[in-house]
Amino acid sequence: MKKVRMLGIAFVAALVLRVASNFAPGILWDWHVFTWFFIWGGHNNAAIFVENWGWFLEWTPAIIGSGMMVGTNTAASMFAGAVISWGIIGPVLVRTGVASGVKIMGPDYTGPWEEFTTYMSMNLEDPVNKPSPRYWLLWPGVLLMVAVSIVEVLCQYRLLSIAAKVLAHRVCASFYSACRATGIKATWVERYSESYDDRSDDTTDESQAIKPWMWISGLVLSIIVTCLSCGLQWGMPLSMTIVSIIMAVILTVLAILSTGMKDMTPLAAIAKSSQQVLGGMTRGDRWTLAKAQTLNSLGGAVAAGVANQATDLTADFRVGFLLRTPPRAQWIAQLLGSGVAIFLAPAIFLVFASAYPCILDITAETCAFSAPSVSAWRAATIAATSPTLPIPKSSGIFAICITVVGCLVTIMKHFYLVKERQKYRLYLPNFMTLGLMMVIPQPCIGTAMMIGAIIALLWKRLRPASYEEYLFSVLSGMIAGEGIGGVINAIVAIAGVQAGTGIGCPAGMC
Fold first, then answer.
1. Each residue of 385-401: pLDDT tens digit?
2. How would DSSP label each residue in 262-275?
3. How far apart are CA 454 and CA 449, in angstroms?
4. Beta partners for residue 118, in sequence order
5. What domain range includes position 89?
6. Can you give the pTM of this predicted structure?
7. Contacts with 39 (C-beta within 8 Å, 6 or more apart), sequence order
8. Does residue 328 fall inside a structural domain?
9. Can you tell me the distance from the alpha carbon of 91 to that of 96, in angstroms, rounded to the nearest whole number?
10. Of 426, 446, 406, which Cα lies nearest the Cα of 145?
């Protein structure tokens, strides 16, 4: 009961903070410390140049809660990624003239906020010769995330081989059962299926087991609906849809293995791999560039969507197995939940898109949501479909160099830092999260993650029993509270409520 109470307190506190901060963001949500210094200095000091790079404190319960959960290594890697990207590389790019920013108040403004600039624009007027720092850093970040996630999976080659054998045995056993039911002899299949050593300790009652027809029927229905929706709504050829589904099946197996072994789902690598394959199918005179990009994104979405849902459901079944939850009851619950989510997820997106139109406006210089994964998807789509890569040369060279370093460090972690040296893994940076912070144009995210990790570290050292008992209750309440609060704020924005103050915000804008 105490855990429920702690969850409720954290939920209500986060909800109230998120809703109240909508009316006073500069006081309750974003602490623009360098803006304060700039104002106190009579709008005549260098603090504005630090503010321009997004260095402020954001008291977001969801991100702070995530930092409490992921631990110091991941949080420190994200903070380091923010410092390297938006505290070192970005300013150097601007200083040397490689990249440039956009004046937020306009080129003709001459007031106290004349130097107020954003370097997070995705303006593609001339991205190769005059990129923004965000566009320049996007390519190293995406390549680093994709390459490191692939290397992480390949480093588990022993478990991959075991999984491949298990899968082959299971397929042969199912095929043999079908042959026996139809009177067809398949001696070699029988021998191969019987040689399988099932090392699981599954003792599920047969009446609660999930029958093959239950998941096969859903699979067939999903394939049919995918083919129809892609073809009718987006004009995607059936052959391309089938290739996307086949890619999704193959890559989903790797995603499930990676999630089970490393608690890391390489969705970026999966989507980008599928996009590269489809990129070869959409090149040529048959498709316009815009159409090719649409089909490419759609194919990647199919692969990433299948992998994401499969890993989530597999993780649910793993928890259910440990808790001895009947599989059939859990399958029915998942079916009901998925049925609701099919309609709820698009509805929530429409609510946020209506409240914050900048989400769908690529030319918007500022937005409440940075949508980093959207930028990564767009970059991969452009790279897979464009006749020439619209990447600045210096960005491409840096992307290759840092990716090589990231892959070598990952390989060293798996093959050198083992046994008695494994304790040193804690001090290696997580290049996946470092690459992520190159894509996320918000240093405050890395700062909030670090704050959460420090809070968790101090809590664990000072009150270890309380930490073990209440950690997940508190952070679950924090994350859920901010999420619901965000929905309420979106509804308030749609309703046209104009109230609050911009005190503490740069130029009165937060």
1. 777 778 899 999 999 99
2. HS---HHHHHHHHH
3. 9
4. 102
5. 1-120+444-510
6. 0.79
7. none
8. yes
9. 9
10. 406
